[in-house]
């Protein structure tokens, strides 16, 4: 954060210092929190994933949705695959984000089922092959589950640093009928995340042990 010494500088410089302080704090937090989740064992990951499913089922989070957006776990992220399969078993449709082929830095959501043809994207993450009929407009979702690197109890999220979710979700600011839900391991909580004006907060955070309404 900004130190007292910076107050003596002119306005532009103070602003620069604040942004740099935020950036380096976010970078450091990202490294620590990614390390924490990467260090979870395969058993701990599987356990967390099943506890997440049980938590969501017990609280009827997905039952009234027609279509929910998910992600495929990468880098130690909390794995929503059992939850995706639960959705399929209940007739709730699911989608996955793919890197937008035209809008740089944005995501596009494609319908995802057990039969989806998959390919690997530039980050080595599996995503559905982009076919026009499979595109699900953002506004057709009732629930959008996002991965996150860190969160605080106010719903502020820290992602992997690409700004993909922030850019894509910025158009939803006024859509009260769509719920943004961050999924994370409990070890990804921090007291307060430094935020920037482009960051899009979530409405709820769900961990293997808790549901936090923000
Ligand atoms: N709506 C936006 N318009 C333009 N640039 C943006 C927008 N949102 C984020 N960015 C840019 O993206 C970069 C990364 O943003 P940030 O550090 O918040 O990513 P993140 O929240 O960790 O990633 P993600 O959103 O993919 O989870 C920033 O440099 C920021 O300038
Ligand atoms: Mg952000």
From TrEMBL:
Class of enzymatic activity (EC top level): ligase
UniProt xrefs under InterPro entries: FTHF_cligase, FTHF_cligase-like_sf, NagB/RpiA_transferase-like
Entry keyword set: ATP-binding, Coiled coil, Magnesium, Metal-binding, Nucleotide-binding
Coiled-coil residue windows: 19-46
Cofactors: Mg(2+)
Binding site for substrate: 72, 77
GO molecular function annotation: 5-formyltetrahydrofolate cyclo-ligase activity; ATP binding; metal ion binding
Reaction equation(s) it catalyzes: (6S)-5-formyl-5,6,7,8-tetrahydrofolate + ATP = (6R)-5,10-methenyltetrahydrofolate + ADP + phosphate
Pfam families in the cross-refs: 5-FTHF_cyc-lig (PF01812)
GO biological process: folic acid-containing compound biosynthetic process; tetrahydrofolate interconversion
Positions with a binding annotation for ATP: 26-30, 157-165
EC number annotated for this UniProt entry: 6.3.3.2
Similarity remark: Belongs to the 5-formyltetrahydrofolate cyclo-ligase family.
NCBIfam families (alphabetical): MTHFS_bact (TIGR02727)
Name the UniProt record assigns to this protein: 5-formyltetrahydrofolate cyclo-ligase
Organism: Planctobacterium marinum
């Amino acid at each position: 954060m900004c130190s007292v010494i910076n107050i003596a500088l002119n306005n532009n410089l103070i602003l620069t210092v604040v942004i740099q302080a935020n950036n380096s704090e976010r970078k450091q937090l990202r490294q620590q929190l990614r390390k924490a989740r990467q260090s979870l064992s395969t058993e701990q990951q599987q356990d967390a994933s099943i506890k997440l499913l049980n938590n969501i089922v017990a609280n009827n989070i997905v039952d009234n949705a027609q279509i929910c957006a998910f992600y495929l776990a990468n880098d130690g992220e909390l794995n929503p695959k059992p939850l995706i399969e639960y959705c399929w078993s209940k007739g709730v449709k699911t989608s996955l984000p793919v890197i937008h082929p035209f809008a740089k830095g944005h995501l596009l959501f494609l319908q995802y089922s057990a039969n989806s043809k998959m390919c690997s994207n530039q980050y080595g993450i599996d995503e559905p092959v982009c076919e026009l009929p499979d595109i699900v407009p953002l506004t057709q979702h009732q629930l959008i589950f996002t991965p996150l690197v860190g969160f605080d109890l106010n719903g502020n999220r820290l992602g992997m640093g690409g700004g993909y979710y922030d850019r894509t979700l910025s158009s939803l600011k006024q859509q009260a009928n769509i719920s943004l839900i961050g999924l994370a391991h409990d070890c990804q909580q921090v007291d307060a995340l430094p935020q920037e004006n482009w960051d899009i907060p979530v409405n709820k955070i769900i961990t293997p042990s808790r549901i936090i309404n923000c």
